[in-house]
Amino acid sequence: MTATRVLVLNSGSSSLKYQLLDMRDASRLALGLVERIGEQTSRLKHTCVRTGETREQNGPIADHDAALKAVAEELARDGIGLDSPDLLAIGHRVVHGGMFFTEPTVIDDSVITEIERLIPVAPLHNPANLTGIRTARALRPDLPQVAVFDTAFHTTMPESSARYAIDPRLADRYRVRRYGFHGTSHAYVSRETARLLGKDPAEVNVIVLHLGNGASASAVERGRCVDTSMGLTPLEGLVMGTRSGDLDPAVIFHLARVGGMSMDEIDTLLNKRSGLFGLCGDNDMREIRRRIDEGDQEAALAFDIYIHRLKKYIGAYYAVLGKVDAIVFTAGVGENAAPVRQAAIAGLEGLGAAVDPELNSVRGDEARLISPASARVAVAVVPTDEELEIATQTYALVGKSN
């Protein structure tokens, strides 16, 4: 029988998320999370989708090698272990692929070397991704391993969008340019939005708003990204849970010279203590909305700043695309926070976009339109599925020769 299963691994610095999918029908067989790797309080939560059984392990898991071995044991208990002949490949999320990787790539030693070279522009993410790759290759050296890059979808941006206005020779020497992130989500959601509209992706222009703790926007023209809000790092762009998003670069010099802050302190401030958290002490949109309902002015201002930045990017991407067929919300906040969607689209009726309050209030796991039938521009909610996108790209690459 032809192998059709793909294991998707997303390795963080102290976590390992995974899903096992059967690509004959894109069904999930198992999924889980190992968290707090390297601590005494590690936890593995595993779910077998076929039986509906969820199991937990609590206790120290020393490293990613031990974590993946524990995952393999759980899969084996369900009869779908890593040694199964039905397992075709392992797909890995890799955050930064630079300009070198523009599509999913079968991993070999040269690919690992290039991912290592990109660590200076992704110091928090690429080392963790590499750990997962090395661990999986050691466990199944005979199995194809595929890297799917967050940045790949954005490599179609024209130079006018991707370049910063600095000396290009200096920029090239230090790889300074706008790369963008959340690419697997933007690719999946833009394609699913076209399907929701009953059209081919090459026929539509879409503004995708990926709103989670990290947040990014993209302008997708006929299936290709032409602009995105994140830049050299995930710090640029929208107001996020703990990241500032756009700000005058001179703020950094000011904080260093006048505030006496070190570069590490400023880095921590802008990435971990800014955004919604920095503005009001909360980065959970549900809690912020609860505080607003109770009359909290600090939370209300944080929300207003968040929405203002979001509107600016929607308007900017209208201008970039010229014609917009749909604005689509996705990820944790985008999929679940109706007040965010309502506020972000309010006032855009002149541009053809509007939200139907009743449709917007509906909660669900399915892609759906929330705009009135009369709107020239569709507004949609499309749940993202980055694991399915990684599995699909992995299967498309490896399955050709299987």
Written description of the protein model:
37% of the residues lie in helices and 20% in strands. The chain has 402 residues and is α/β, with parallel strands linked by helices. Strands 5-4-3-2-1-6-8-7 form an 8-stranded mixed beta sheet, sandwiched between helices. It has a 6-stranded mixed beta sheet with strand order 11-10-9-12-14-13, with helices on both faces. A hairpin with a 4-residue loop joins strand 2 and strand 3 (27-35). Helix 1 (64-77) packs across helix 3 (126-139). The protein starts with a strand and ends with a helix.
Structural class by secondary-structure content: alpha/beta
Strand adjacency order, main sheet:
5-4-3-2-1-6-8-7
Task: Report the mean per-residue pLDDT as an integer.
Answer: 94
Please give the count of helices.
15
Share in β-strands: 15-25%
* Straight-line distance between termini: 11 Å
